């Protein structure tokens, strides 16, 4: 869960202040890479633990790799490629929206069909379907066309994200958040140390400041929290309560702190043209 990164707070600063430089150019690829690795790691570990506790350890690794990771990526890639054939050509805003939403629904429908009719269980990872879908079609259309597609889709994306966050936040008990206490502090500090030190020792450029822009993680982490809590409730409800309160509290605090820290990181790196003047 700590691996996941939501770059939106830092990107809001990039758009507002028109930042440019090594930190700005490295931020988006790193955030996407973090999420890809986080999704693979989370669903692999969650699948193994669940299968082990259910007494089905012998097939957990193969099932996790093929069904939870490889199959969703294959579905997303194929549908993403098909969508690029239609989205390459310039179209009106309405047509672009209808085409993109249609192919997203097709990708999701394929996953639902496989879950219900083939597997008979909720095993397909829809987050990987979406990531593979968008990664493929985004790399098969021109940059100009991709900008048009994203401009047309942004209103739908904003509403969709609002629905997802409300849906994730509605079941949360604020008593869990207030009671997380020391676990939240340890989680925030250790995650921040990991992000900063990993970027510092792993990067050739933007070593000092990249890690500070990778702190926010609310959206993906809340999705992971819901899945982890559902899995843990079957055999370890106490840990489920701790995780739910800790991650929710950490997500809220990070959303407040991350924008301030990210802005300072861009200032210290000298990538804010407005402040240079």
From TrEMBL:
The record's InterPro entries line, in alphabetical order, gives: Cation/H_exchanger_TM (IPR006153)
Note whether Isomerase occurs among the keywords. no
State the compartments where it is located. Answer: Membrane
Topology term for the membrane: Multi-pass membrane protein
Keywords (A to Z) from UniProt: Membrane, Transmembrane, Transmembrane helix
Pfam families documented for this protein: Na_H_Exchanger
Tell whether Transmembrane is among the UniProt keywords: yes
**What are the Cation/H+ exchanger transmembrane domain coordinates in residue numbering?**
10-245
Task: List residues traversing the bilayer.
Answer: 27-49, 61-86, 98-118, 124-142, 149-168, 174-193, 214-235, 241-262
Name the record gives this protein: Cation:proton antiporter
Instruction: Recite the lineage of the species.
Output: Bacteria, Bacillati, Bacillota, Bacilli, Lactobacillales
């Amino acid at each position: 869960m700590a691996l996941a990164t939501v770059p939106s707070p830092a990107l809001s600063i990039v758009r507002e202040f028109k930042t440019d430089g090594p930190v700005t150019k490295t931020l988006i690829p790193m955030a996407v890479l973090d999420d890809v690795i986080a999704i693979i790691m989370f669903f692999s570990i969650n699948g193994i633990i669940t299968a082990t506790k259910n007494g089905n350890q012998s097939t957990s690794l193969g099932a996790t790799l093929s069904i939870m990771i490889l199959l969703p990526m294959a579905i997303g890639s194929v549908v993403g490629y098909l969508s690029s054939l239609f989205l390459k050509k310039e179209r009106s805003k309405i047509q672009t929206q209808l085409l993109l939403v249609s192919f997203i629904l097709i990708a999701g429908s394929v996953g639902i069909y496989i879950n219900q009719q083939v597997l008979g269980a909720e095993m397909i990872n829809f987050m990987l379907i979406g990531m593979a879908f968008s990664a493929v079609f985004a790399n098969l259309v021109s940059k100009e066309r991709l900008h048009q597609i994203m401009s047309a889709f942004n209103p739908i994306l904003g509403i969709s994200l609002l629905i997802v966050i409300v849906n994730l936040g509605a079941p949360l008990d604020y008593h869990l958040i207030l009671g997380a206490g020391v676990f939240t502090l340890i989680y925030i500090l250790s995650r921040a140390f990991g992000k900063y030190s990993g970027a510092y020792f792993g990067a050739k450029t933007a070593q000092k400041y990249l890690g500070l822009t990778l702190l926010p993680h609310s959206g993906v982490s809340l999705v992971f929290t819901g899945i982890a809590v559902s899995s843990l409730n079957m055999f370890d409800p106490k840990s489920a309560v701790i995780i739910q309160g800790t991650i929710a509290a950490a997500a809220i605090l990070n959303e407040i702190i991350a924008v301030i820290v990210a802005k300072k990181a861009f200032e210290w790196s000298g990538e804010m043209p407005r402040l240079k003047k």
